[in-house]
Amino acid sequence: IVDKSIGFKAGADDYLVKPFQPEELLLRLNAHLRRRQREREDAMPDHRAELFRTGDLEIHFGKYDVRLGGEPVALSSREIELLEVLASDAGSVFTRDQILEALWGSKEAADPNSITVMVRKIREKIEDDPSKPRYLVTVWRVGYKLADLR
Questions:
Q1: pLDDT at position 63, please?
Q2: Cβ contact 62:47 at 8 Å
Q3: Are 135 and 66 in contact, with CB atoms under 8 Å apart?
Q4: Would you say the C-alpha torsion 108, 110, 114, 118 has a positive or negative sign?
Q5: DSSP 3-state assignment of 148?
Q6: In what order do the strands lie in the sheet containing 65-68?
Q7: Which CATH number fits domain 51-146: 1.10.10.10, 1.10.3720.10, 1.20.950.20, 3.90.550.10?
């Protein structure tokens, strides 16, 4: 029980005691993946508002379509998902942990620095001057927000 206790306190979701059947491991993995997918879907923005507009930037929810000045912006699916998360509550600050939860289902599932890299790449594609962002704004020591310029 000590090993199980240590594992759960360290953040484990499950514990499988040896010896175990490979089928049981697969069943547990599939159940875990289903839960993570549901959590990720729940964390994604509500698509009732099909379009978010701020300044010249348009985000078409659920369509993986982002436009700047009416022209499509070449973004990765994760970059678009990040913009959708921020647009779901434009003007509000999202911490790195909140963004990681929304995009990967867990703040431990990816390196927090990956958010910094994605933000930099998005800014290079949507900002006139990425060093002075107008749309994707950093709130120092807190997180990021999508400016509501409507």
A1: 87
A2: yes
A3: no
A4: negative
A5: coil
A6: 51-54, 57-60, 65-68, 71-72
A7: 1.10.10.10
Cα–Cα distance measured from residue 113 to residue 116, given in angstroms and rounded to the nearest whole number = 5
- Burial class of residue 137 (count of CB atoms within 10 Å of its CB; 0-12, 13-18, 19+): middle
pLDDT digits (tens, 9 = 90+) for 81-119: 999 999 988 889 999 989 988 888 877 777 878 899 999
The CA distance from 54 to 46, in Å, is 18
CB 136 within 8 A of CB 129: no
Residue 2 exposure: Cα atoms within 13 Å on the Cβ side: 0
In the chain, what are the domain boundaries?
A: 2-43, 51-146
